[in-house]
Design goal:
nine-stranded mixed beta sheet; alpha/beta; globular; five-stranded parallel beta sheet
Length: about 500
């Protein structure tokens, strides 16, 4: 059992970021709803209280009794977490004159306080709050201020309890990682032994016990998560794992063959299924995005289920579900945020037990584990690719002709990113086939052909994203290559929308 930090989630948009920062300190952590604290858990070394969209004095604010936590574990409250501890102990939290959002500097702080060990004078921190702590309880000591916030941090005197009004987890807080390290390592005493190697060792051992001699099926997508899950399971149970890779006809150019070749080199037992005809028939004439997704999702489940039933005595379905999937599936208010997993609907249909060996990991950790497992880098660094594939990058109805056009244009773009050494600087990229035609001139003739949009974004986890500022020379070269080499396209555009307000995919 790994020692861990528990992060109580009060609904902040940056709660996952706190988790990522703690994991980057080679320390295991779990994000748990604010009212679900595990009381009997000897592995807990400390507790972090997250921010929240609410004010502590709101009628619908998330409330929890911290008496069984403070005094038993070291506690760090961030933003709402800090305000909540101060407010419920008799301090004052009031609306700020104006919303305090953005950069600030710690103009003074107690340098001998363990929380600020190694923190530089006048260090930049990130504020994001509409309320401010105007008075702390008598037994709370102010330990930091900014030019606009008198009580930017405090400590409960004689106790291992701290609160900070700013967000140390955010990139713009220059010494934020140092502050979190001071809490996690120096205060909580975590050994920083959470590593890809330790994860592989413990997970393989746990899988051997969990699965025994049972047979397992896993749906491969060619993506990072399912590929790493497959290699990890293969190390644990070998021939008892069967992987199924379905070609729905909406993969990238030559992807079906290339992925199967990769998996063969990894020693995996893989069944490749060519189901293109089925999917094209069922998608014929369908234009509504959500209906397309549902047809593709149901078709995948049907094909996978049919193939899996050809294997005798299967008891487990394995998925490449990762930690953000688990966190996003239900918000702390019970509202569904994300209704799909890698192969959503399969566990219910197939009546199999579910095995999710990566459910504790963030995406960057999955990649680190893959490298530790010796997987080839082109598999590990592969951009995310939507489950419905090119089906959500063809706006309008899907035809074989459109897929062929998009595959060719997409191949030029992705290969260009690799050739220009830009691929690894981009989180996700692809081409979208637009449902419009435009006038052009080729030679001495006018044309009336299709338009495509190039999409490339930078991100850390896909939750937010900025459009990638690719060189003009590169974009010009790709535009010329697509128009000259892809029959049926005479116009190329570049999408410069960020998420939010746009999404990464167009559908």
């Amino acid at each position: 059992m790994h020692e861990k930090i528990v992060i109580l989630d009060f609904g902040s948009q940056t709660t996952q970021l706190i988790g990522r920062r703690v994991r980057e300190l080679d320390t295991y952590c779990e994000i748990i709803p604010y009212n679900k604290f595990p009381k009997e858990d000897s592995t807990i070394k400390g507790v972090i209280l997250s921010g929240s969209p609410f004010s502590v004095y709101d009628e619908n604010a998330f409330q929890v009794d911290l008496n069984e936590i403070c005094g038993k574990y070291p506690v760090l409250g961030i933003c709402y977490g800090a305000q909540f501890m101060a407010y419920t102990n008799g301090g004052k939290v009031e609306p700020a004159g104006t919303r305090e959002y953005g950069r600030a500097h710690l103009t003074s702080f107690c340098q001998d306080n363990v929380l600020f060990k190694g923190v530089r004078e006048n260090t930049q921190v990130w504020m994001s709050h509409g309320d401010t702590i105007t008075a702390v309880p008598d037994n709370f000591k102010k330990i930091a201020s900014t030019d606009k916030v008198e009580i930017a941090a405090y400590q409960l005197e004689g106790e291992q309890v701290w609160g900070v009004q700013f967000h140390p987890e955010v990139f713009h807080s220059e010494d934020g990682t140092q502050i979190l390290k001071n809490f996690v390592v120096d205060v909580c005493g975590c050994k920083q032994d959470w590593s890809p190697g330790s994860f592989i060792e413990s997970t393989v051992a746990e899988l051997k016990v969990q699965l025994g001699d049972d047979k397992v099926v896993l749906a491969l997508s060619g993506g990072v998560d399912s590929s790493v899950a497959a290699v990890l399971l293969n190390r644990a149970i070998g021939k008892n794992l069967t992987c199924i890779f379905v070609d729905h006809g909406l993969l990238r150019k030559n992807e079906f063959k290339n992925v199967l070749d990769d998996y063969e080199c990894l020693g995996l037992n893989v069944i490749g299924v060519d189901a293109r005809a089925k999917f094209f028939a069922e998608l014929a004439g369908v234009t509504e995005p959500e209906r397309k997704r549902k047809i593709i999702g149901k078709g995948f489940i049907d094909v996978f289920d049919e193939e899996a039933h050809k294997i005798k005595d299967v008891k487990w379905l394995a998925q490449g579900t990762i930690y953000p999937d688990c966190i996003e599936s239900l918000s702390i208010t019970g509202t569904v945020i994300k209704s799909h997993h890698n192969v959503g609907g399969l566990p219910e249909k197939m009546n199999l037990k579910l095995c999710e060996p990566l459910r504790l990991l963030f995406k960057d950790e999955v990649r680190r584990v893959g490298r530790e497992l010796g997987m080839p880098d082109h598999l590990i660094s592969r951009h995310p690719f939507p489950g419905p594939g090119l089906g959500v990058r063809i706006l309008g109805d899907i035809t074989l002709e459109k897929v062929n056009i998009l595959q060719e244009a997409d191949d030029i773009f992705i290969q260009g990113l690799r050739d220009w050494h830009l691929y690894d600087k981009v989180w996700q990229a692809g081409v979208i086939l637009l449902p419009v035609q435009s006038v052009g001139v080729m030679g001495d003739e006018r044309t009336y052909e299709r338009a495509v949009a190039l999409r490339a974004v930078t991100s850390t986890d896909g939750m937010t994203a900025d459009w990638a500022h690719l060189p003009y020379e590169f974009l010009g070269k790709i535009s010329n290559d697509i128009i000259n080499k892809v029959k049926g396209v005479n116009r190329v555009t570049y999408d410069i929308s960020s998420k939010p307000p746009a999404t990464i995919e167009w559908e």
